[in-house]
Amino acid sequence: MIRYPLIVALGMLGPGMVCAQPAPTNQARFEKPDRWAMAARAAVFLRAQQDKATGGWNVNPQGPTLPAITGLVVQGLLMQEGVDEKDPAVSAGIAFILSKQQPDGGIYDRILPTYNTAICLSALAKIKSPSAEVRSAMVKAQEFLKGLQYGEGAAVREGAVEAAERVSRDHPYYGGWGYGNRGRPDLSNSAFIIEALRESGVSESDAAFQRALVFLQRCQMIEKGSDGKIINGEPYAKGSTQGGFIYSTSENKDKPGSGQSFAGEVAESLSGPAGLAARVTLKAKGADGKPVTLTREEIRTRLREKAKESSNPEHAGLGDRCVILFGPGSTDTSANSFEVRAPGDVAPRFEILVGSAFADVAEAPVTAKAVEHWQGESRLRAYGSMTYSGFKSYVYAGLARNDPRVVAAREWIARNYTLEENPGVGTDGLYYYLLVFSRAMHAWGEPTLRAVGAEGGPVTHEWKQDLVERLSRLQQSDGSFRSVDDRWMESDPVLITAYSLVALEHAE
Predict the structure, then answer these.
(1) Contact call for residues 381 and 416 (beta carbons, < 8 A)
(2) 253 or 197, which is more confident?
């Protein structure tokens, strides 16, 4: 059952330093000294990391360099009060970005052209008084990005670093953008580009946004909206009512239309009697040094063998009757972590059985819990960073606040509100999550967010205060931010401090 009435009750109610920088005089600044001081310290750290010879950040002398990191830093600095393009560090950063613009209009250094161009375009769009050179660079970047969208208008570039395919509307790639090295589009790149195009002045009526809406819907895990009309008709979303978003419509170029989520799977359409669920995490690496993973059939085989040894009738045929849900980071064929759901009412006994089945490969003791219904359909799990990316993209594409697609995303956000982790994937991509969270909430334009509390009732969150408080626990004495996970480059202090500075400026 689709729970749209929830949003009526919870209503995410409808209707953005220089060392010698002067002390703030605005009264609002004094009311939020922590946020201002945190942003100032982050800016001081970032300024100290600038490559003085080139004006960029994280410049690799051997190449290639990712100008997107410079773009993120420049965005954060330009969002600070009193800082503009005349600031020496910002001016040098802008010059570095412009130096990386290629003849095709993209802003990149050999690799990841869409990702780098989008973030750099967003940085240029924040310049208060752009020069003729900057305005020209922005137009070229816009056209470059539009040409890399999968669809009937995709540009064909011989020998290009990346070239999208010309595909029809019924193709799962239609309307999306990708990195280029995986042969398929993804929501992360698409969201960066949608934001960059909109911020740089492209109208929401532009054909690029209309095509993008098709891809966005296919990344949203909900089959039908509150009006009964199909939102996502792809097989992987059939029957789903989650409302949040996954990473892509395809795992790779060889599996178009398969769907992909870095959060693994979740049980939906729950039914049947109460039962048990046991979580299993395998060793990071085996004796051969390779990650330990098991296929569904390997998991079932191990459970069958242990069930045969058990005298408990509840365990009979366990390997064939159970539901197996892959955990975060899995592929569609194998997993390093998973959940086993089965009938039963004695959790300790179930823990022992499942634990013994994987004792030789498990990283930690298996834990089991009671669940109201153990049976369900295994579907790709929506998760935090992609849901806020999709939600933000809907806002930039001009969808109405009561549009069923927007409402479904808002309901997922209400049910999964947290800043302690990237919901669905833990600490993976935490700073990226905080960045897109802040941008989405800023774009939505409301200072509060009403979510579902621990007891199931509505709870109002001051999201800006929550964000500042969360980041305050992560900032270090030198102004940088502490790495909590190395996935997706988040061991890089410049990258995660740039993410954090932008997020803090949205929390003003």
Answers:
(1) no
(2) 197
Six-digit token string for 48: 């100290």
Query: Domain residue spans in the chain?
Result: 5-239+382-506, 265-380
Q: What is the amino acid identity at position 177?
A: W
Q: Do domains 5-239+382-506 and 265-380 have the same CATH topology?
A: no
How far the first Cα of the chain sits from its last, in Å, is 38
The two three-digit tokens of residue 211, written as one number: 């095509």
Closest CA to 187 of 488, 458, 391: 391
Residue 260's SS3 state is: strand
Pairwise CA distance, residues 414 & 281, whole Å: 29
How many whole angstroms separate alpha carbon 279 and alpha carbon 293?
Answer: 14
Calculated CA dihedral for residues 410, 412, 415, 417, nearest 10 degrees: -70
Residue of 262, 256, 66, 260 lying closest to 165 (CA atoms): 256
Asked: is 265-380 a CATH 3.90.1420 domain? The reply is no
Please give the CATH topology (third level) of the domain spanning 5-239+382-506: Glycosyltransferase (1.50.10)
Report the distance separating Cα 392 and Cα 244, nearest Å: 12
CA–CA separation, 494 and 475 (whole Å): 12
* Phi, psi (rounded to 5 degrees) for 69: -65, -40
3-state class (DSSP) for residue 167 = coil
pLDDT in tens, 99-138: 999 999 999 999 999 999 999 999 999 999 999 999 999 9
User: Which helix (H) or strand (E) element contains residue 367?
Assistant: strand 367-371
Q: What is the pTM of this model?
A: 0.90
Mean pLDDT within 408-421 = 97
Q: Which two tokens stand for residue 193?
A: 């580009």
| 15-60 pLDDT per residue, tens | 333 333 444 444 444 454 499 999 999 999 999 999 999 999 999 9
Residue 203 tokens, joined: 């109208």
Give me the residues paired with residue 462 across strands.
Answer: 448
Cα four-point dihedral sign 266, 272, 273, 275: negative
Q: What are phi and psi of 280, to 5 degrees?
A: -125, 130
Is the distance from CB of 83 to CB of 34 less than 8 angstroms? no
CA triplet 499, 502, 503: central angle to 5 degrees?
85
H or E segment to which residue 448 belongs: strand 448-452
Q: Give the CA-trace dihedral at 410, 34, 123, 487, to 10 degrees.
A: -70
Question: Helix/strand/coil (H, E, C) string of 262-306?
Answer: CCCEEEEEEECCCEEEEEEEECCCCCCCCCCCEEHHHHHHHHHHH
Give the span between the Cα atoms of 144 and 104, in whole angstroms: 7
CA 6 to chain centre: 24
Task: Give the position of tokens 């109460």.
Answer: 274
Phi/psi of residue 198, nearest 5 degrees: -65, -45
Q: Which residues contact 170 (CB under 8 A, 6 or more apart)?
A: none
By the 8 A CB rule, do 100 and 121 touch?
no
**Would you give the DSSP letter of residue 477?**
T
